[in-house]
Amino acid sequence: MKIPFNKPYMTGKELDYIKQAHELGHLSGEGIFTQKCHRWLEENLHCKKVFLTTSGTTALEMAAILSDIQTGDEVIMPSYTFPSTANAFVLRGARIVFVDIRPDTMNIDEMLIEQAVTNKTKIIVPVHYAGVACEMDTILKIANKYKILVVEDAAHGFLSTYKDKYLGTIGDIGCFSFHETKNITCGEGGAIILNNERFIKRAEIVREKGTNRCIFFRGEVDKYTWVDIGSSYLPSEINAAFLWAQLEEAESITWQRLRIWEMYHDAFGRLEGEGKVRRPVISPECQHNAHMYYLLLPDLETRGKLLKRLQVAGVNAVFHYVPLHSSPAGRKYGRAHGDLSHTQNVSDRLVRLPLWMEMTENDVGLVVQTVHRILD
Length: 376
Prior knowledge:
The chain contains 15 helices and 13 strands. With about 375 residues, the protein is of the alpha/beta class. Strands 1-9-8-5-4-2-3-12 form an eight-stranded mixed sheet, with helices on both faces. A hairpin with a 2-residue loop joins strand 6 and strand 7. It is globular. The chain starts with 13 loop residues before the first helix and ends with a helix.
């Protein structure tokens, strides 16, 4: 491939920090680099408590446990998302209620949520697609009215904001991903953001395999034991050391990605004016983080032609998602509220273009020229 879809970025300090972690003799997690990451996230995101996790998926699984999901409880979310969003709650016995998305931002349509609420509804999960914020004021109003928890899936949304508040810090719980394909990465990793103080003490136990091990190491008890359900949700100190190098440059990484995003956006204005593509829509309340750049094509056939010809030209573009409500597991563990026509429509038409930190103007230009040549 001349232009890969993704190319993980290294700041240059990652291996030094991993070496330091090894020299300190603490690789299993909760060492100095984990503490540095926690402190950075809490101070810069202005949130009550953060715990690193092994992935965005396990952050969501922790959120499901902390929310005390029981068999038969319902969780409202969009169908246009990655399976982890639903899986975390299905594992605790929940039934998923899929709601359609807005055709502009591809986020859950906040005006359809209240109609999907029943006496079994326990949680609303807004997914901030492409790092663009959902309409959180409306979602929080509904949640408060029906005493429902809000768990933000901010896997795409690190350092994006909604009305000057960071995504992941607005609902009761927020979940981030630091996967290889995300803006800030440690290969596999994540974080759970606890904005509701009542979850903090239990989260520490759930994350430590259901034990009060952290309390023991603080000297608050003379031995530790199994006190709750939980699992091994702590990332290793190797992951935390890698992540720390990335967090140190998080603002500059975001700025560079935004610069690339703007180059794409400017370049495709004419094609949008001619009705050949639709560019991303950014809600006015949101400052996005340039997590991805996508185009919406007129139909499935045109999308297929574009992807095939980009591949031949050495440009690795991709599409996603297969809507969860139409998947085998989605039909088994959930139900659609309404016809979800926008979800299906977007799924057939969307193409994600390459976007990674070290893309040059020539790289972007090659992608742009190839798309224009195919669609003109």
